Amino acid sequence: MDIETIETELMLADIESLDNQIKKLEKKVHGQDKNAAKLLSDATSIKANLEKSIPARDQEIDSLPFNLLTSKPVIYVCNVEESAASKGNKYSDVVREKFGAKAPVLVISSKIEMEIAQIVDIDERKMFLDELGLNQSGLDQVIHTGYDTLGLQTFYTVGPKEAHAWTITKGMTAPQAAGKIHSDFERGFIRAEIISPSDYIEYGGEVAVKEAGKMRLVGKDYIMQEGDICHFLFNV
Questions:
Q1: 2-71: which CATH architecture?
Q2: What's the pLDDT at 172?
Q3: Are 18 and 68 in contact, with CB atoms under 8 Å apart?
Q4: Mean pLDDT in the chain?
Q5: How many Å apart are CA 117 and CA 101, to the nearest integer?
Q6: Rounded to whole angstroms, how far apart are CA atoms 153 and 174?
Q7: Where do the domains of the chain lie?
Q8: Is beta strand 105-108 parallel, antiparallel or unpaired with respect to 76-79?
């Protein structure tokens, strides 16, 4: 299977990388570098497991300091024929069975994606997807799954001239999110005005949401939620 071939090549590349790092760490250990001794032990153990065909992501030892290819999270994307886009085919079923317990497995049709890309009207695009029994495009699946796999989410700022999407790590507080816009926003954070995306759409904008009493004022401990529409108040 192509997946196994690629994984093997990545593990071989990691082994080569670790060989080089181990040589450097051995020199540091001889120079009485205490931190190097622990790193050398970890690198040696990770390499031994890689030689047993265990990728770094499946090992209990922290592989982050070594920047290994097989330590990165994985998403499997299966390209199938149009008729199999909603449920997959026998080949994507094999991928799900073999790898689905460890990583997300997505099924898309590149031919359908090409056709969707040519449809500008949003309603027409939705109708096209509905006819195929699809909830969203393959591109949207890849983006959403990629964000989720990497532990990322999005918040928005909306102004009279433009709307902007900002990417943050899940679990970030309101001040940390504000810092993604500008460090002064985090340093002088006072509070944030938060509107949920569903309320923004239902009431038709910020003013109507405020009038309906649906806007929330939150402080420094607020944990950002996916899709939050924010206005940060700060003072520096």
A1: Orthogonal Bundle (1.10)
A2: 98
A3: yes
A4: 95
A5: 31
A6: 13
A7: 2-71, 76-149, 152-234
A8: parallel
CATH code, residues 76-149: 3.40.50.300
Q: What are the φ/ψ torsions at residue 211 (nearest 5 degrees)?
A: -65, -30
User: What is the length of the chain?
Assistant: 236
Superfamily assignment of 152-234 in CATH?
Beta-grasp domain (3.10.20.30)
Name 132's Cβ contacts closer than 8 Å, sequence gap at least 6. Answer: 82, 85, 86, 112
Identify the CA nearest to 136 among candidates 122, 146, 150: 122
**Are 156 and 228 spatial neighbours (Cβ–Cβ below 8 Å)?**
yes
Amino acid of residue 197: P
With H, G, I as helix, E, B as strand and everything else as coil, classify residue 7.
helix
Residue 107: closest CA among 130, 125, 133 = 133
What is the pTM (predicted TM-score) of this model? 0.81
- pLDDT of 156 reads 97
Q: Who contacts 166 (Cβ-Cβ below 8 Å, separation ≥6)?
A: 154, 155, 156, 157, 177, 180, 181
Band (1; pLDDT cuts 50, 70, 90): low
The sign of the dihedral angle between the CA atoms of 8, 14, 15, 16 is: positive
pLDDT tens digits along 69-81: 999 999 999 999 9
Q: Report the C-alpha gap between 232 and 31 in whole angstroms.
A: 51
> In the predicted model, is pLDDT for residue 87 greater than 90?
yes
Alpha-carbon distance of 162 to 88, in angstroms, equals 39
Give tens-digit pLDDT for 114-155.
999 999 999 999 999 999 999 999 999 999 999 999 999 999
